[in-house]
Amino acid sequence: MNHAMVQRLIYKDWYFNRFAITAYVAAGLLSLVALALGGEAGFYAGSILLITVLVAVGAHMAMIAVTERRDQTLAFVMTLPISTLEYTTAKIVGNLMIFFAAWTTLLVGTVAVIAGRQALPDGLIPFAIVVLFQLFAGYCLMLSVALVSESQGWTIGALVLGNLLLNGVIFAVSNAPGVGANMKSDSIVWSQPIVGVLWAEVAAILFLLGLTFYLQTRKTDFL
Q1: Would you state the torsion angle of the CA atoms of residues 190, 193, 198, 203, taken in this order, to the nearest 10 degrees?
Q2: Hey, CA dihedral for 160, 22, 216, 151, is it positive or negative?
Q3: N or C: which end of the chain has fewer CB within 10 A?
Q4: 82 dihedral zone (left: phi>0; alpha: psi -120 to 50; beta)
């Protein structure tokens, strides 16, 4: 594998998106400030802003695959000494690294805020982690559709589907037996519904990434 070329392509994505990602992370940190310092209204505003930021980061990164074909960047990249496997590796790994950096920062920050603020019960932590992993899965769905279809319409459809699934997970988990009571507790309880959904989300993430890699490497036309 041409590791030098793969690294250059990954660096390219980081370089051209550095200001946007910085802005997203700043907005995410602002949401954590609202969670940490605000009252009930601040908690809900911070929660909505946090989810919105992560959805926006995922959509921004997924759309890069679509704009590369539209702007003819993809055609230029494929003229370089790089194979389909190397291009796919660079695009998926680079895209994932950028989203993962923002997502991990906000995941750790969210857990730290809940654990550190007395007004927020520690029982919220498992539920918050499930929600954040669902956002990760939604991003992987968008990335998969964007890379494979290279269609803005299909990618927007994946964004809508991801948001619907997020709302469905939030409703189903919060209303699962015992979860609501555990969320109000000062103890962290990993109940069966929480663990089951979390494992399902991890499996979905791995499946979507593996499927994307498989379908991309079987493509014969990138132009």
Answers
A1: 140
A2: positive
A3: C
A4: beta
pLDDT value of position 73:
59
Exposed, middle or buried by CB within 10 Å (0-12, 13-18, 19+), for 133?
A: buried
The structure tokens listed for 159 are 């964004």
User: What pTM does this model have?
Assistant: 0.90
Series of mean pLDDT values for 10-residue runs along the chain (223 residues): 72 83 91 85 89 93 74 56 73 88 93 88 93 96 89 91 94 87 87 94 95 80 55
Residue type, 114: I
Domain ranges of the chain: 3-217
